[in-house]
Amino acid sequence: MKRLIGISAAALLMACQPASSEKQAAAPIDMAQTIDYFEGAWTPQQTGPLLDKTMRLRFPYDASLLSAGEQEAVKELLAAGARLHSLYLDQVHPQSRAVEAAMAGTDRQDLKDLFRMMKGPIATTLENTREPFLNVAASTTPRNVYPSDSSREALDAFIAAHPEKKSDLLHLRSVVKNANDANKAEALATLDAHPALEVLHPGLIETIKQAEGYFALPYSVAYAEDILFVYDRLMAAASAIENDDVSFARFLRLRARDLLADDYDGGDATWVTGNFTGNLNAQIGSYETYDDALYGVKSFFSLSLLQRDKEKSEELASSIGDIQEIEDSLPYAANKTVRSNIPVSVYNIIADFGQARGTNTATILPNEGHLSRQFGRTILIRSTVLRNEEIFEESLSAFRAATSANHHDDLGINGNFYRTLWHEIGHYMGPDQTKIGEDIDAALQDNADLIEEMKADLVSLFSALKLYKAGNYTEAQLRSIYAGGILRVLNKNRPRREQAYGTMQLVQWNWFLDKGVLTFDEGKLSIHYDKYPAAVESLLTEVLNLQYQGNREAAAAFVDEWTAWDKDLHGVIGAAMKASETSRFRLVTYEALGE
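Above: the chain sequence. Below: its structure as tokens.
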């Protein structure tokens, strides 16, 4: 085996120099695979009900608004995104990538559409169940980032017996492997073929050789060919854009190296604090853990390529006000100092890939506590989605179906815009560590995402009244924000416990019912706005305390207590919203991809 002990920085960079995107080999596909993925596939009669409930959106792209260098960078970043999309498919289901290749050989457009919309071969049905629509294995809790035969109980027992391995096995960016001879040999061969990865992960070879039971493989090693391809594309994009936006070029180069090291500190620091002067921004890498149904700690890949709306960004930034004042007013004792000049911009979507594909409205990153404490966070508002009239009309229809007639004009598109903005700011506020100094994600594990998302929802609603009193909102805007907060929590189906968003929404719905914000009569909900602030503050107090205490069992018990589903109340409202809908799902295509 080739060992590279004293490699210089120059040699490391030479080992990873960008190659032409045309010459780079495609991701390997197992040609020995003989499965007919279309045998027994859903018929058009089965795919039809889902596709009939699908809103089709096409996001435009005007290259003339970009410089020549930016246009070239876009091409490279789109190539990187396409590869990360395939990598995401592999993370969520072990057969997704082979199915993606097989899709080219079928003329069943309904199956192609469903695969694209569901981001894999497992469909979420109208009843909110998860079912394969092709000839593939059913979705499992480990997804494809833990061994397929593993369980939470088995891994917990192994970690309890080997606590020194916990940080590696539950690392944000590692795949857990069974420590058998085949897996170890494959990992060692990858490191031998790519000595730069060995340098960036010192001690990994010996760890793999000595592993018993399970071992953790960094994403850059587990997905080496994909990551090196993306590295090349980011470096090429950086070179293309350097004369237009040197700060963005610097970020791209650092992010390329981050992907090889599975440590995003350098890139994230530059991303959050950099003064990007051009038209582009991008979210690149693996951040969010929503797809990890086993522990809730593994991040999944995405890339969002965004075009800044400079005028709207400047207008929005000037309207935010003093974030520290809101933080100081939150109902918890361990308030912290936050950056009131948190970078926030409004963007139009050029293309989304991987976990980000769909109609995500906004993002705040990074998530890692030490980075947000040291450098802050950045907020990316997607105007393409939030200002989309078709999406808003569908939301308004659902709101009116659920509520009594006197509320039908309460919801407005601008109210939901500001509710979403302050949801993202809300992620930046409240405790970022438990009382013993542990990261909240590590402490709450599979409950962390839903508690965090609920906190952000509640901070948004909590701050609305203060911003109204400060003159930032009109009375109509405040009511619209509150109405959007109600629509946010109404579920059409009972959520599965693994669904972070749906579960935290149900907790809020039940809390609002209990506190009298919502009453149910003759199949409709009435909103009692006078009770809104107290109910929000009381639930926010509970949620902030759960984060600060960092007790996973207590968080799980709280969620279980507040997720009851009454078919004669929740079921009736859900049915009314379903009866009003013209769409449940969204299939997005992008002009930038020639779609």
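Confidence is low (pLDDT under 50) at residues 1-32.
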